[in-house]
Amino acid sequence: MTSTTPAATTDLTNSSRRAVPTTTLGTTGPTTSAFGLGLMGMSDLYGPSDEAESIATVHAALDAGVTLLDTGDFYGMGHNELLLHDALRGRSRSDVQISVKFGALRGPDNSWLGYNTSPAATKAALAYSLRRLRTDYIDVYRPARLDPNVPIEETVGAIADLVKAGYVRHIGLSEVGADTLRRAAAVHPISDLQIEYSLISRGLEAEVLPTARELGIGITAYGVLSRGLLSGHWRADREVVATDFRGFSPRFQGDNLTHNLALVEALRAVADAKGASVAQVAIAWVASRGSDIVPLVGARRRDRLTEALGALDVVLTAADLAAIEAAVPNGAAAGDRYAAAQMAHLDSER
Description:
Domain NADP-dependent oxidoreductase: 36-327
Order of helices and strands: EEEHEHEEEHEHEHEHEHHEHHH
Region (Disordered): 1-28
CATH superfamily: NADP-dependent oxidoreductase domain
Number of domains: 1
CATH class: Alpha Beta
Helix content: 25-40%
Strand order of the largest sheet: 3-4-5-8-9-10-11-12
CATH topology: TIM Barrel
Largest sheet: 8 strands, parallel, barrel
Keywords: Oxidoreductase
Strand content: 15-25%
Organism: Kitasatospora paracochleata
Radius of gyration: 19 Å
CATH architecture: Alpha-Beta Barrel
Pfam families: Aldo_ket_red (PF00248)
């Protein structure tokens, strides 16, 4: 795809909003913003997007103080990294932290072909990411999933070589379980685990989150709005295009969707009482789970970004948290967070 430069736009940030605070990813990771921007939807998996608006959204995030930018080399088969490069043109590289996932194999027809995180594939993938991003280093480099054919020690060891060579600053992981976390951390310090976490995806709380905290590993939480389901904007009659994977996601199907949208309406009552939006309360809930948790907001439009950052102003009291729990109890969602084939790749679910 050819990159485009956005026209001048109105600043949609709210000058009265609390500034985005900073944090450290785990005990060994980089200092970064306490909210991050996930870029996947700007290139892939959620249907068509507007490239100029995507770049303008990245600019708005940076101007608001969001410095953690999350991408993957397989998002749009490299397009997302190229888009991020365009968005960062003219910006100081040292002012942002770029997190890159690798290892997922895609076909020219957008199909998924498995994972390869062997040492050679890891180093080759990094070389291509550096070129697409036009940068000398990646702040956090992580395998997207556990490769069943490659011991995690080999993958982390390969990234550790890249750290020593100066091409990578920190090592992260994604969607792995407690045992894998321990094995990886025994090879090299792990900055953070990227894993889905929302009011209706709380599986990590039982074992993964306590283990991460024991090891000093931070959490970067994606899917905080469950792919838009908890945004408060999703409608039961919404038409989903063929390139939007939510058309195959169990939580967006039939009776599951009806059930899950009823949970959203219950959450809306709590949000209305707070004078906030459903999305803001859902994001604030994730942020409230601990200072070691950084929500990744998947906004691809400036208005959605502005709404999401409004969660910074939502302070949840003990009474609020109890009301949220009553509205959306743990385990209340209908349907798995991925289709069966994708669930099988989640080490975190084993």
